[in-house]
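Protein Entry — a single chain follows
Fields — amino acid sequence, C-alpha cells
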Amino acid sequence: MMRNKHRLPPAVSAGSMADIAFLLLIFFMVVTAIVNDRGILVRLPPLSDAPVPPVAQRNLINIKINGDGALLFEQQPLAVDQLRERIKTYLLNPEQRADLPSSPTRAVVSLQNDRATPYAAYLGVYDQIQAAYRELWEVAAQQRFQKSYEQLAVAERRSIKRALPQVISEAEPTDYR
C-alpha cells in the first residue's frame, strides 16, 4: 500500500502536440480560400514625361462629389440617377451647342471627389459614367453592325471605341472638411 502513495501520475508527451498543431495549421492554410478584393478596373495611360496637352473647356465635362455624397454636374446639383442621360447628351451634343464637346472623341469626363466622399457614392457616380458609355457603344453597334456590342468581333469593338472613347480624368481629391 505504501508504494502506491509515492508513485507520480503518468506524464503526457507534449512533443507530439506541437506536431499536431503544426499539421492542423498547414491543413487550414491549404484549404482556406483567400478572398481577393477587386477594385475598379481601369487601364492607366503609359507613364510619360511629356506635358499633358490642354483640353478646351467646352470638351471638359466636370463632375464633383462632395464629402456628403452630393453630386455637382457642371456646377449644378444633380441626382445620381440622372447622371447617365446627362453624360450621353453632353457627349453626343445633338444640338451642336458651342458650350458642349465638339465631338465625342475630344470629350473628357473630369471626376473629382472630396477625401470624405463615401465610397458608395463614388462608386455610384463611376458606375453611371461607365453605364453611359456602354449605352452609347450599344447604340453605335446597333447602328453600324446591326448587332449587340457584346456580339461584335474585337476589331469592330475597337472601331466603336475609337469613335466613342471613354476618357475619364480623375482629379486629385479635395479636402474641404
